[in-house]
């Protein structure tokens, strides 16, 4: 039985596993913030009254509807404020996946007969790569750029790939698995000069590092609430003012100025707005520098205690919270389970534990050898992780890795 408690103590959440066999509560150390983040108590606090009392439909004219509309407007301002947009440029969606689909399918299908070409890259999230595959079946051409061993695209190659028929460049800002950042300002410049519509999937960046749609020169930008301590199932698409209407992939009522039909999830949107407001304060306070320091401290501790560690991704151009390590001779999947039993949550790029039959497409595209992929672990920190927690994790790894290596060699 999993028992999640909310508390305002050292961590703003305490995730406990009740173990019926040992009959004690294990406190978890959560290091998987790129997968999802715990909801911030202040976010929950603003959502509860909306669910309890303010149930109106924001499209209704009566007072309940008007109240719900006010909540939506406030949240739209909070989201816009975090990324330097105006409220009218924010379309609420059900999350990063929908925002990405909305742009790719919307831009391509707006072209009707001649779909043209889309440029993307090999390490994008499946919510980019899979709609691209669908569009390919409809006759659209996808130019999928390779990445170097650190996970960055070659900007010259990007420029060479642009053709007259290119309708969209969709390149992620940061990668969820290794945290590598693309040079998004430069990509924005290239898109403007050529000119091609430019979308970036900034789901992993927003809330972790400063994101400003004007500095990026983007036309579209995707955000997801649950990556920044907001609720799940809600997100947004920034769509620059003045762009032609997109072919609507979710058509229905007149919600979101006819850009996305369906009654809005008001409580979730209110929580998302609050999460954005809190993220802005956090970014302004420099919390992210402390997070990068904490991550680097953790890396040094692991390196000192566990031989055969290799950092995957770009050491310089990287999210401040992400550390993807390959642990030579170990099996990432088994280590993940061992750590989980010890109360530590991480993730891995190996196939067996990521719910996929294939090893990480990101690490594969970065030409990481299969042996290294199978031994990879991703640690993604949150601002409330502490040095004490990371010391525990480093020591636990130092204990588990030699056993794991022995078993891995025995199986091989
Ligand atoms: C880079 C990136 N894009 C998109 C998504 C999908 O976001 P959501 O879970 O809100 O659909 C994720 C989720 O992990 C992601 O990491």
Task: Based on the model shown, name its key terms.
412 residues; alpha/beta; Aspartate Aminotransferase, domain 2; Aspartate Aminotransferase, domain 1; 7-stranded mixed beta sheet; 3-stranded antiparallel beta sheet; 13 helices; globular; binds pyridoxal-5'-phosphate
Please give a quick description of this structure.
This protein is an alpha/beta fold and 412 residues long.
Describe this entry's structure for a reader.
- With 412 residues, this protein is α/β, with parallel strands linked by helices.
- It folds into 2 domains: 42-282, Type I PLP-dependent aspartate aminotransferase-like (Major domain) (Aspartate Aminotransferase, domain 2); 286-411, Alpha-Beta Complex (Aspartate Aminotransferase, domain 1), CATH 3.90.1150.
- It is 40% helix and 17% strand.
- It has 13 helices and 15 strands.
- The strands form 4 sheets. The chain has a 7-stranded mixed sheet, with helices on both faces. Strands 1-2-3 form a 3-stranded antiparallel sheet, with no helix packed on it.
- β9 (197-201), α7 (213-216) and β10 form a beta-alpha-beta unit.
- α9 packs across α13 (387-411).
- The longest helix has 25 residues, at 387-411.
- The two termini are 35 Å apart.
- Residues 1-11 and 15-26 have low confidence and may be disordered.
- The structure holds pyridoxal-5'-phosphate (PLP).
- Pyridoxal-5'-phosphate binds next to α3.
- The site of pyridoxal-5'-phosphate (PLP) has 14 residues, from α3.
